[in-house]
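REQUEST FORM: STRUCTURE PREDICTION
Request ID: SP-0412
Submitted by: Lab K.M.
Chain count: 1
Length (residues): 625
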Amino acid sequence: MNHDNSKKPSGKPPYDRSGSQDSLDELSMNDYWKELENINETRGNNHEGQEAVVVKEPDEGELEEEWLKEAGLSNLFGEAAGDSQESMVVLATLTRTQAAAVQKRVETVTQTMRKKNKQYQVPDVRDIFKQQNESKEKETGSEHQSARTKENKDEPLEEAKEAHCQHIGDNSPREDVPVTETDINLEISFSEQAACLKDNPPGKVSKGKDDDTLLPNFRLPRDKTGTTKIGDLALQDMKKVHPLALIELTALFDILGTELKPQKAVKIKIKESGLFGVPLSVLLEQDQKRVPGIRIPLIFQKLIAQIEEGKLDTEGLLRIPGVAARIKHLCHELEAKFYEGTFNWENVKQHDAASLLKLFIRELPQPLLTVEYLKAFQDVQKLPIKKHQLQALNLLVLLLPEGNRDTLKALLEFLQRVIDHRDKNKMTLKNVAVVMAPNLFMFHGLSLKITEQSEFVMAAGTASVMRFMIKYQNLLWTIPTFLVNQVRKQNAESQKKEKKDKAVKKLLKKMAYDREKHEKQDKSINDVKTVNDADVPQGVIRVQAPHLSKVSMAIQLTEELKASDVVARFLSQKSGTIQSLKKEEIFLYEVGGNIGERCLDDDTYMKDLHELNPNAEWVIKSKND
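STATUS: Completed
RESULT:
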């Protein structure tokens, strides 16, 4: 946000803080205002001639159209409405609350198009969800639910509660692990859980003993089919996760009564080379020419390394700024000499490096949290309970572009290392969050009018969100099981369609070619299939390691067999180069079936996963393969 303040914010009078997530006193906000002053001083020296990003106010219905496109549902309207098979695959996997969120946007687009007399083909919203509702009613056998759906299509949240609330408490990921208020249930849609909690709010969550543990100790109960982290799924599956995460986030915000409006930035002229003020994607592209496969900008990595070389015990690290004129000089020198390798890092003091790191973040022409979702990140603190806030942050992280996500992860990991030295550097979780919040959230390109009162609320709110991102960072990089299962369902639906298409093609082929020739070909295919089936007895999986060994291994499934056991058994029985590999370097992968490819965590129970995906292949390899 653009704060054109010449005045010093530290002298602002107090006001009624009842609307903020945490009191300003509790968050020691003085450091926040001091950081903002330092930012304004530095910005005056570095913003000469830089063009600001402007958020475009969307036309009526345009926001919903953009939302449907990003959600992978653009075929529901417009000129392509007749070819909506892909959209129907997505709709078939949605929960009730997710479907309600889509339905709401489709209705808005429909009404807008009719007002504008557009000649687009706009399907009736009831027709869009008819097939899905019939399918769900058939599965549950609920004639009463069917009647309610026809009579009252405008109450999808009530339908969701009736259909699912009685099951929410019965879905513990592990029977021997009780569900508590600090458990994050990843198996059931967050919006479904929120719909059920609205009428049954949880009690107070116990707090920790000191300042850095005031937030609940949320945890992820172990899932027998394995926890999926960002980076574990193949690219084709991650492409399906993005629209599903958007639909789920929207449904969650809808349930909780908070408006989610992704912003849209007008394109501007940007720097095409350099270090500071260069788009993250451009910076990574130029860095990858020097270091193939790099995922975090080289300058970002080097600044963090420079701070850590001076040890993290320095009192006031991140809080005490470098001299503005010196930072400006170092910035220009880095631009000229960094890639040439002639920059003298011995001249960069620890506080200078910290100031340059923060400068890099806030000078990005598009914010690290993106123009589209920066406001959504800020609005997380408006959600009623902390568990909702964490769930929303998890979904927002999934929506970030890969480069932004990787850079944010590196930043949060570094900030945690700073906090680990809090006994000496006096930088607690709260202190670090307060200092870093304006650097991530006060984006100079978004010109919004802010009242003094809303500025106080936003300051406390963004500091609170920053604390969440640092404290729960390990949870934020988890892909919820319910999203992975929705991807599985989409893959299964797509495979059904492909099989039908292949059957039609095969029939046409038989008509075009000699019948006897094709009967022999079919027999050959069937013979191969029989041999393969006989090769793997029931209750046994065959594990391959094509990059490590020519021989596969048959492993008997048991109730307690885990992915780590499979890898250990493979390593212990193979020889040569495999024995020289460390266990931490290779992983077991689930490949094919109803998933593209998924790296398994060590605690995945193989029998449970095999039942979920019986047609998968099992491959051991390095993540670098």
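NOTES: The first strand starts at residue 228 and ends at 229.
Reviewed by: T.R.
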